[in-house]
Amino acid sequence: MKRSIAIPAAAGAIVLAMTLTSCSGSAENAAPSEGDYVSGGTFVMATRNDPGDLNPFKAVQLDTWAMVSLSYESLIYVTPEGDFEPWLAEDWEDTGTEATFTIKEGITCEDGTEFTAQTAADNVNFNADPANATFSYPSVIDENVSATAEGNTLTVTSAENDPFLAISVGTLRMVCDAGIADPTILSDGTNSTGLFALTDATPGDTYTLTKRDDYAWGPDGVTSDTEGLPDEIELRVVADESTAANLLLSGELNSASVSGADRSRLDGAGLEFVGVPNPVGEMLFNEREGRPFSDPLVREALATAIDRDEVGPVIADGDGMPSKSLVVRSPFLCVEDEPEWSLPETDLDRAGELLDEAGWTLNDDGKREKDGEPLTIKFIYNASTSTHAPAAELVQEMWNELGVTTELFANDAAAWADQLYTTYDWDTGWVQMVPGSPGVLSTFFGPTPAEGGLNFMFVDNPEYNALAAQAASASPDETCGLWQDAEKELIERFDVFPVIDNVLPTYQSGAVFDLPNYVQPTTIRMLP
């Protein structure tokens, strides 16, 4: 199998994976051997919020992707270390303007139809059509990309050079023919080649997926008969982290992400975990016209006022690590050992000078105002993440010293959607992006929601946009350097402020599994 894409950041990807591995629970314990597995039963995993619309073409929220990843498969499998292995495709080649994939024989969909190279081509063309407005357009592929099929060979061409063409196409989640013909059926059901298919759903409560008995094309030779696979997967909505921890300890849950104080109970009980890098301390800014952070001086001032050495350990729960990149998910494309950008030293005096320069002056009661209006910041955070509130309160205290009024808002899932994509009534907070490539990252800095895009921050950074455009069509040897320069523009213009990262642990109880980004169902193995 020829893979002509060169990824200069491969070493950086391994460093992130090694960091992740070193933070895995009970690392000294050997993995169970094949004979230690027991087949059958139900694998029960928790999700914090209801996944909502299940259409993989439209999935944006993390809880939705957790569900999508249980059923939909791609041509290429990406391991937790960021390596690429065959999945629906048995091999592939790439020149930058053309990628060819050989689709495995005998793949069938859950509805009994055949998955062919033509089905794969239809997926590519659907995602490349701007009229369909999928999540993958234009961050992964765009109208420059088209696909054709002949026999079991898929040929993808790009009108412009794309250094990640095979990987971009190869990691698209593939939908079967019926779902492409009528995407509305995907909102409350599945239409895929996956090992597990959705058979029952109670929104807000549970989603049940049942193992197929004719599956034979999984990574590493996994089939329906592989020892240790469960008969069913139950995705259960468990909003409270303490409740999830209790259910893990009682054995009622096999998998749940727990990042707060309840970790000590799980660690003490000897539960192991796998994890992914988590930009827990990432701050984004609403730069919409009329909001305080539309002024770069205000963004720089309030970022400079934050003592990261004090706030970081609180929000990371004492287990933080410096951010290396805004790309924090597998396959970690264009992530190097160290970032090119730098963050400012904490300096309240400098922060005050910047606010003065921006016209926000101190009045007699020690509050900042401009044209008679107080400088008021709406700071949002996730109500269900236990470390968000105390870290937000620390930031509030630091900004109080500057004369800034900071209003804190604890959001649930509905409030996030409303503030970020409907009312735009927020200023900053612990708001995270978790892309696996710089191309996906760029989606959040392109068109605004009013223009049909995902740029809910209303960032307009011409230098970033120019570098991103160059990187998207550069040679494999040049692309990552350009993407790193582009990321530097975002950080040093204070469009993003990464206070600290940590590892988001997903605990295991009564089962083991891999976590490339989400629980990978073909890797689930039930324990006695």
Automatic annotation (TrEMBL):
Region forming the signal peptide: 1-27
PROSITE patterns attached to this UniProt entry: PROKAR_LIPOPROTEIN (PS51257)
Gene3D superfamilies, alphabetized: Dipeptide-binding Protein, Domain 3, Periplasmic binding protein-like II
Superkingdom as given in the UniProt entry: Bacteria
Keywords noted in UniProt: Signal, Transport
InterPro entries: Peptide/Ni-bd, SBP_5, SBP_5_dom
Stretches assigned to the Solute-binding protein family domain: 84-449
Database matches in CDD domains: PBP2_NikA_DppA_OppA_like
Family: Belongs to the bacterial solute-binding protein 5 family.
PANTHER family: OLIGOPEPTIDE-BINDING PROTEIN APPA, PERIPLASMIC BINDING COMPONENT OF ABC TRANSPORTER
Protein name: Peptide/nickel transport system substrate-binding protein
Annotated source species: Microbacterium murale
